[in-house]
């Protein structure tokens, strides 16, 4: 990994599911996956969730693309997952760390317009300053214009899927920069096309 | 709170959603909620998730009951949420801490038989021994016979919904016992009636 010294040179993972609230959920999920280029991430799906691992930018690129493809069907779809960096003992998928930083799905997904409501929580582990790290990243979200309000145990983001995922990625990236061995996780529930009135 | 000295005297919360993969998801969610007695918890639902707060036993009682009611329809349903204890600054719902420990939905839910596949992760915050705390609770799950295997970033549980929620509750409770001000969160994705082959 010579030449890469920042936190993104450490492997990032996301274990997530996409839940389409529709009878044809299998078809929607399969369709969403087929359209996404996953060449730069390690990926495995089981009966509960999907795990993608690799460079941070590709993990966010792929998860955003899968969710957006499912959401653009117009069906009520929720992405619910946990991003993770620095988990001790993590090694599978290390070969994917040699990929370059060109995102394979970004251009296409930037053309989509999907409004989302999101609740996310950062968990910096083994760090006595964790509450300040969280507060700093809520301030970053506020600067992006995506932060709406705090709720119990989470912060709420609203806006276009591309803007919201940008905030999620930056908040996660920044929180992981505290030191080179930091272990940080971040949960996110991203909802599109809900029939409920938005509770901003 | 005089007379209560153990960890369960601290307020516990869960922010969760139940996702029925069906066109009539609204009906299934409403039906599941109507059947559950939520008198002993603070509860608020928005367009992304539901938050319940109160004594640990009632938070687990209510979340299990809502999920089980939705799952017993036979539709593919997933519960995805984060349990939390010790979040600094938490005070809403404190009045519910004076409720007794009799679970209002347990008897009814014990009569249901719903097979579930679960992935959960414990996050003890601000604790240098957090990896050992996690390992200890995986051993507890193993002792319950619900633990199936470790996967990236999570542990897998399989079995009846009542057994799996018992493991989740005990793992969470135990992890919170390290000291009286510990802050612990636990994510859980609990899936029923998936058409995918179980990947035990």
From TrEMBL, chains A, B:
Positions of thiamine binding: 18, 50
InterPro entries, per the entry: HMP/thiamine-bd (IPR015835), MTH1187/YkoF-like (IPR029756), Thiamin/HMP-bd_put_YkoF (IPR011522)
Annotated Thiamin/hydroxymethyl pyrimidine-binding YkoF putative domain residues: 11-90, 116-196
Molecular function in Gene Ontology: thiamine binding
Domain of life: Bacteria
Designated name of the protein: Thiamine-binding protein
The species this protein was found in: Alteribacter lacisalsi
